[in-house]
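re: the backbone from monday

yeah here it is again, tokenized this time
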């Protein structure tokens, strides 16, 4: 049961066996500097309120599935991921619990009871604030152009390897925050999430993380 729900969450959020240098980017020599700056920003980030645009690419569909929504994050581990169009879908992580609501169906899961959901919880939270670069479960390769750093992350943990082939991040050179988050699955289907109109360190609306 939990494995099927976990697969469903991955499919909603999205996630090359040979890492290749992306077009227009060059390999980064000084990765320590990037890690230092990203960690500094992450340590100073207490809340995030951002809109997002998600593109889901499935091999059996001719067109990408595009959806939009709002993401709220509050340190240390409160997350609200709400899809608004073209469908309604809500995911909340708060106080060690995961709530999934799809139309009139609702599922609650205690994160501590599931290693798989703990892994996906850590993955999402750390991706949003950039500290995913410090996760020992992932090996990273860094590239850059004039505007962004591009990071390819490869799962080293067997649990993640069952579902995820590669994670790709774009990090802005202006503020060292994640602007794009792409998850490539074993089937090569992928999900790309672009964060837009991001607001950092403003108070989150009351009830933003409530299971109501």
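seq for it, each position gets an aa:
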């Amino acid at each position: 049961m939990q494995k099927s729900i976990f697969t469903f969450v991955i499919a909603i959020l999205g996630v090359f066996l040979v890492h290749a240098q992306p077009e227009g980017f060059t390999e980064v020599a000084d990765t320590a500097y990037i890690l230092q700056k990203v960690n500094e920003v992450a340590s100073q980030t207490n809340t995030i309120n951002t809109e997002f645009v998600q593109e889901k690419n499935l091999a059996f569909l001719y067109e990408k599935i595009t959806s939009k929504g709002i993401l709220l994050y509050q340190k240390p581990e409160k997350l609200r991921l709400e899809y608004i169009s073209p469908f309604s879908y809500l995911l909340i992580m708060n106080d060690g619990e995961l709530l999934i609501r799809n139309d009139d169906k609702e599922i609650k899961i205690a994160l501590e009871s599931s290693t798989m959901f703990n892994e996906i919880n850590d993955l999402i939270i750390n991706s949003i604030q950039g500290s995913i670069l410090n996760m020992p479960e992932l090996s990273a390769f860094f590239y850059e152009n004039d505007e962004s750093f591009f990071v390819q992350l490869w799962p080293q943990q067997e649990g993640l390897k069952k579902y995820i082939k590669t994670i790709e991040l774009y990090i802005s050179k202006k503020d060292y925050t994640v602007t794009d988050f792409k998850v490539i699955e074993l089937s090569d289907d992928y999900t790309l999430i672009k964060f837009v109109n991001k607001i950092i360190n403003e108070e989150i609306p009351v009830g933003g993380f409530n299971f109501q």
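The first helix runs from residue 2 to 13. DSSP finds four helices and twelve strands in the chain.
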